[in-house]
Amino acid sequence: MTSIGILGAGRxxxxxxxxxxxxxxxxxxxxxxxxxxxxxxxxxTASRLSFADQRTAARTADIVINATPGDSALERLAGLRTExxxxxxxxxxxxxxxxxxxxxxxxxxxxxxxxxxxQTALPDTHVVKTLNTMLFMVMTxxxxxxxxxxxxxxxxxxxxxxxxTGLLGDLGWQPGWIEDLGDITTARATEAMIxxxxxxxxRNGFQPFAVSLAR
Length: 215
Description:
215 residues; Rossmann fold; globular
């Protein structure tokens, strides 16, 4: 199975780590420091889940997932250019500035996207944007929703997107739920979808949902 490094050990990173390890991948969860707390510390897949600092996780993994806060991810990952060279970087973050209530507010890169900025900063890395249009629990349990959800994929490299589509299948996404939008510039559309999320959360709380296509 693939070695996957996940940068970010919060709810998103820990959730992805647990599911990917459960499907047989070796997962390296990259934490900011040895004392950073994570829900994955108590995961039942310890034999396939290890912990390291983020630089080590990026260097030693075959594929890397960015699950760090989007507003600071560009600077953080640009500093890992050497470690990420030649690899697939799956970006699941949204780059926003918080509103007064702490929910997502304005986009950090209007007219662009975090994924595009990452691809420019990491020219030797294949950046693929996906899984950023839903609450974190839906990423690994899409079949729990009453309506079939959509996951969008954006990236310049077709083989990289094919590899990422395979990982989405391991997370429970059926082929008909996966929508390839095209090159990395299409990520600005899915990243802009985050603007609807705080309004839904204020009305309904943190109930699982995804911003999806209906056909």
